[in-house]
Design goal:
heterotrimer, A mainly alpha (324), B alpha/beta (504), C mainly alpha (333), B: 504 residues, alpha/beta, Rossmann fold, 2 domains, six-stranded mixed β-sheet, 17 helices, C: 333 residues, globular, transmembrane helix (chain C), membrane (chain C), transport (chain C)
């Protein structure tokens, strides 16, 4: 019996491992630098995580439906560049909807390829990563994009403004997370996303239109990307055309840290938000204790592997794999 | 036979899992040159016993004795080296590789620097293939072979060692009749070479055709061994389930309603041609035929999963086009598919959500899913169908096959379809739950549903159907009423012997 | 049977057909659009093309093994960069100061060892933890890149050795050093995949892992070896490339995984494992390089190359699917 309870403890440790590790980090960083848990710093972390977080919300839908999206980084560059360019051409009030429309078209294209044509999502989005990058470069002529009259526009409100003392990016992130969290957990569409990711064939045999569900997941992902691009553009009112490069990996890391299985069918918006915050606080903590930004690459690596490892170890009931 | 030493003997094997005594002192033996059937309901302990034999589980008590030598098994590979070989139900072949590479998988002959000795590999393979008298050679890519020939490759694997005993686990599950004949020939060859055969199957006709003795397991314990020649199906069944099984014909008669579904001249490529039939409310129409006769494909076409190339479908007398499962469901046609785990259920989802999946879009209050209504539906059908589960939150993957099937049936009943199609209603389900599901199907008909049952088990179609459509190679050969049908004329019809049915 | 053989032939030959099409297209289009007077199919141009294919090509051979085995490796670009840093930095180490030009083989050895060790780390994690290779190498793609930065901050690492440059720029029988490396690697890996027990087992594992395990094939060590091979090849690719250029930026090798995977998929290797050919991968590598070069030849810039490569990758996937569907009789799921 003693061994049973020991195994149980191990299982609990493994299940909650990521939260425990997170707590240890927080305590460690707080001891190392008392500023770490100050309201200012906490707000700062959430604010700087907002762009990543908003993108991760959409990718959560895609991953739960059993697919991948590696194109969100270059798609975000695209949105940012487009909205900045149109800002000076047709004004912010028209630029924003136009940018959303264009980004949604890209999402719809991917959704069509993966959903209706049933092509492998890893390769399709890898191809789109490259293609959209090329599109952005062509669009911008390889130049960085800047708003000419930075003082005279209200466009900065999405990235720099605040309401009730809370920065707007945080408000957008929280509102979108709440909205999409409810969509995923409470609506028929959310249920269908889980069914399609859990067993797409069985979902089809139950009359669910799998292609449409997958399509909509990619459109939602594109919507989130467009929102992230809007925040990014508004924050700096100018941008390099590679601003989102590599973000797809951070986004995926956050979703995986949150515990969504890449096989589909599991994960929640809440868990993804936790994953985003863990990444954000660790990056911030490392910077606060005086380490260079690239140390976070190595730490993120270790954390991702540990998180996924502990998760599957808990499921199989032992630490090491059964691979001979 | 008694004067020889057994090829393989098991003595008092005990294996327990937390809370379960999975094997409770099982003993039996296989003689050289004997075909010994091992029977039992699902969960009776057959697969646990095989895992003990293959060294995947270690027994707490008892011995495995190979030709008088007590042996400890540590892995399937080591068991093979002792002459105990398994032919699994699911083929385990690498389809992109050649026959030779598959036969010697894991044991490719080597030359220096880890190079493959191809000459030796092909020579050894050809020698084995010659013994089996097969129509392919060592260099054929396995993926290009038929299922039956792939099974021959599996069997050829068994012959790479000096096999003492070969264990066949449901080998005929996906074979046609002609292919079965070839398989039985090979088994009888092995037999004549003095190899002991353990033959695991649910199919009585096969067991009585090819085995010498039958051993029965029930609830993890050994229930006895019968001489095949001196026993009959009833006796074996009784041993297996502890009571007699109803193998009778459907005799119930009740009032039938109007024609719910009528199909005229339906064709789909080469899969089936010019199929016509009708089902009335309150009627169970059975579809019987060999694997590949086109039964499942008709069901899939009616459910919108295939596009027919010709023909018309009439629901309640009105012509309809069914373009997708969603479309079919909307028009009142439901399908309980043949592959329960692959097509019927989302195994990681809970019982309730699986049951309400097709109607989740309609069960909403405002933009949200009405979970209360969902739970009500689940509880109602849990009681109605006697689904044994601790509660709706239980993950479906944890239920037994019979209860899983009831969830799938409940899924459709809760939507009150006009036509319910059930494909292989009891595949992989134990004998006890089988008759429950049969009774359920009869009951549904009595309640006025039009039911189509597709099955490859003759007792099943005989037992539940009011009329039986016999199919052969994509064509309807004849439609029988339950008065007309006999085992003989049904077998003739599905073997293509009888003349094609004249469509009225 | 006959129809099956024909479609197989078409599939295997498709990549070479595509290459011929590219050659024709760029030669003709070049006549009208080219910025230079030189013909596209100029011998020097083609030799240069082979040389430029080498860095991606050498890694792609390793990726073919990894993908045939049923895994994927996203960390090759980072391994490439870290090996390059070790290669160039170790040439300036004090301990080797007395070696003269003999430092070259020592540095090569160190760089290759780095690749093997990084590959082994990936392989061991995949083997021992059971975490999917996609996630493991996604992580180490970040982690290894972090190590590159930690080594020398954001500064480039440089060391130009003229003996090395001469060697790298040499031509033997008309082919550049890098081309020879690509040719030898292709031959060796082809031999390993088609003629050795390790290679055949790699196919078996990718094709039907359970069957391979049941047959006693040790899946873990095979995966480990394959990850070590791709690590070695990523390092070899760095050795070939940086011997000539002599300077590495910490961001070098980014997106290499994209190019490499594109080449392998173009060559027809199945994503799910079990099927793929080294020779077709070589075709995929050449096709991509031709495209990059050809688009440059007719005056398109990098942005167009990115766009076209991405769309071609998707188009190949689409064509592959169309070729493999059975048409109307297929189940609509």
């Amino acid at each position: 019996m003693a061994s049973m309870s020991k195994a149980d403890i191990g299982r609990i440790l493994a299940r909650q491992g990521i939260l425990i590790a997170f707590a240890v980090f927080i305590i460690g960083f707080t001891l190392a630098n008392e500023r770490f848990l100050s309201p200012d710093n906490v707000m700062g972390v959430i604010r700087s995580s907002a762009i990543l977080g908003v993108m991760a919300l959409g990718v959560t839908f895609v991953v739960i439906s059993g697919n991948l999206d590696l194109s969100v980084g270059s798609m975000m560059s695209f949105s940012t560049i487009v909205v900045l360019d149109l800002h000076d051409k047709i004004g912010p009030a028209l630029a924003i909807p136009a940018m959303f429309a264009m980004t949604l078209c890209l999402g719809a294209f991917i959704g069509f390829l993966v959903g209706y044509l049933k092509l492998n999502s890893l390769i399709v989005t890898l191809g789109m990563l490259s293609a959209i990058h090329g599109l952005t470069l062509t669009y911008s002529g390889g130049q960085n994009m800047d708003i000419v009259d930075k003082e005279g526009t209200w466009f900065g409100v999405f990235g720099q403004g605040s309401a009730l003392g809370i920065p707007v990016p945080i408000l957008i992130f929280v509102a979108l997370a709440a909205l999409l969290g409810i969509v995923l957990a409470k609506t028929p569409f959310g249920r269908k996303v889980y069914a399609v990711g859990g067993n797409g064939t069985a979902a089809t045999f139950s009359g669910i239109k799998r292609a449409r569900v997958v399509f909509l997941c990619y459109v939602m992902s594109a919507f989130c990307v467009a929102t992230a691009g809007l925040i990014q553009a508004s924050r700096s009112l100018g941008s390099q055309n590679t601003v989102g490069q590599g973000l797809e990996l951070d986004v995926l890391a956050a979703v995986i840290l949150g515990g969504a299985s890449l096989l589909g069918g599991s994960g929640t918006i809440f868990k993804t938000v936790i994953g985003v915050l863990i990444l954000g606080f660790i990056q911030n903590g490392l910077l606060l204790v005086g380490l260079q930004f690239y140390v976070q690459f190595v730490v993120t690596w270790v954390i991702i592997i540990l998180a996924v490892w502990l998760d599957i170890a808990a499921k199989r009931g032992k630490l090491w794999s059964n691979i001979a | 036979m008694t004067d020889k030493t057994p090829a393989l003997r098991l003595e008092g094997i005990v294996k327990t899992f937390p809370g379960v005594r999975a094997l409770d002192g099982v003993s039996f033996s296989v003689m050289p040159g004997e075909v010994h059937a091992l029977m039992g309901e699902n969960g009776a302990g057959k697969s646990t016993l095989m895992k003990v034999l293959g060294g995947i589980y270690q027994p707490e008590e008892g011995q495995i004795i190979v030709e008088e030598m007590p042996t400890v098994m540590t892995s399937p590979l080591q068991a093979k080296s002792k002459g105990i070989v398994f032919i699994h139900q699911e083929l385990s072949l690498a389809e992109e590789l050649t026959v030779a590479e598959n036969i010697y998988l894991g044991e490719l002959p080597r030359r220096s620097f880890g190079r493959v000795d191809w000459a030796k590999l092909y020579a050894q393979t050809d020698a084995i293939l010659e013994k089996l008298k097969v129509g392919f050679n060592a260099k054929t890519i396995v993926g290009d072979l038929s299922i039956a020939n792939q099974q021959m490759v599996e069997i050829a694997r068994a012959l790479t060692v000096d096999a003492k005993a070969v264990i066949f686990d449901e080998p005929t599950a996906s074979l046609t009749d002609a292919e079965k004949v070839v398989l039985f020939d090979v088994i009888s060859d092995l037999q004549s070479q003095g190899v002991g055969i353990i033959y695991i199957s649910h199919r009585m006709e096969e067991i009585f055709k090819i085995t010498d003795r039958i051993s029965v397991l029930r609830d993890g314990s050994y229930r006895g061994t019968l001489e095949t020649r001196a026993t009959n199906e009833e006796e074996v069944t009784q041993l297996m389930i502890g009571r007699a099984l109803d193998l009778s014909r459907n005799v119930s008669h009740h009032e039938m309603g109007d024609i719910a579904l009528e199909v005229r001249g339906l064709s789909c490529g080469d899969l089936f041609k010019d199929v016509s039939f009708e089902v009335r409310r309150g009627e169970v129409l059975g579809f019987y035929g060999l694997v590949g006769a086109g039964r499942t494909e008709i069901a899939e076409t009616l459910f919108g999963l295939r596009d027919p190339s010709a023909g018309t479908i009439l629901l309640d007398g009105e012509e309809v086009r069914i373009s997708s499962p969603a479309d079919a469901i909307g028009k009142g046609i439901s399908l309980v598919p043949e592959d329960r785990k692959g097509q019927g259920l989302v195994l990681g989802m809970n019982c309730r959500d699986n049951m309400t999946l097709p109607q989740v879009g309609n069960l909403s209050s405002g933009p949200f899913v009405a979970t209360g209504a969902e739970t009500d539906i689940f509880e109602k059908y849990k009681e109605k169908l006697d689904i044994r589960t601790p509660g709706w939150k239980q993950t479906v993957g944890n239920l037994s096959g019979g209860n899983q099937q009831k969830i799938v049936i409940g899924k459709w009943l809760s939507m009150h379809p006009k036509v319910l199609i059930v494909d292989e209603p009891t595949r992989g389900i134990d004998v006890g739950s089988k008759s429950e599901i049969h009774n359920l199907i009869r009951e549904l008909a009595a309640q006025g549903y039009a039911v189509i049952v597709v099955s490859s088990e003759m007792p099943e179609v005989l037992h539940v159907s009011d009329r039986i459509v016999a199919m052969f190679s994509g064509k309807v050969m004849r439609t029988f009423t339950s008065e007309e049908v006999t085992e003989e004329n049904l077998i003739q019809a599905i073997s293509g012997i009888a003349a094609t049915d004249k469509v009225a | 049977m006959e129809a099956g053989k024909l479609s197989k032939f078409l599939k295997n030959g498709a990549i070479w057909g595509f290459i011929v099409l590219e050659l024709i297209f760029f030669s003709v289009a070049g006549e009208f659009l080219s910025l230079s007077d030189k013909a596209f199919m100029d011998a020097d141009n083609m030799l240069l093309l082979l040389k430029q294919s080498a860095p991606i090509g050498i890694i792609a051979m390793g990726m073919t093994i990894i993908m045939v085995n049923g895994n994927i490796d996203l960390s090759v670009g980072a391994i490439f960069a870290l090996s390059a840093v070790i290669l160039l930095d170790s040439m300036t180490w004090e301990v080797f100061a007395g070696l003269g030009d003999w430092v070259i083989p020592v540095s090569w050895g160190l760089a290759l060892l780095t690749g093997i060790v990084l590959g082994a780390i990936n392989g061991l994690i995949v083997w021992k933890t059971g975490v999917d290779a996609f996630i493991v190498t996604l992580g180490s793609m970040l982690g290894f890149r972090g190590l590159v930065f930690m080594y020398n901050g954001e500064n480039p690492t440089s060391s130009l050795n003229w003996t090395l440059v001469d060697f790298a720029e040499a031509q033997f029988l008309g082919l550049h050093t890098a081309t020879w490396f690509l040719a030898v690697v292709t031959l060796v890996i082809w031999y390993v995949m088609t003629r050795t027990v390790h290679g055949r087992n790699a196919y078996a594992i990718g094709d039907n892992r359970e069957a391979a395990v049941n047959a006693g094939i040790k899946v873990g060590p095979h995966m480990l070896i394959n990850f070590m091979i791709i690590g070695f090849l990523a390092a070899l690719s760095a050795v070939v490339f940086y011997s000539e250029s002599g300077s590495v930026n910490p961001n070098d090798g980014q997106l290499y995984e994209l190019w490499v995977i594109t080449a392998v998929v173009l060559g027809g290797t199945k994503l799910t494992g079990g099927s793929g050919s080294i020779i077709s991968t070589l075709g995929g590598v050449l096709a991509i390089q031709l495209l990059r070069k050809g688009l440059g030849h007719i005056g398109a810039d990098t942005s167009t190359v990115n766009l076209v490569i991405g769309l071609i990758l998707i188009a190949v996937l689409f064509l592959d699917r169309q070729l493999n569907t059975k048409g109307k009789e297929e189940l609509k799921i």
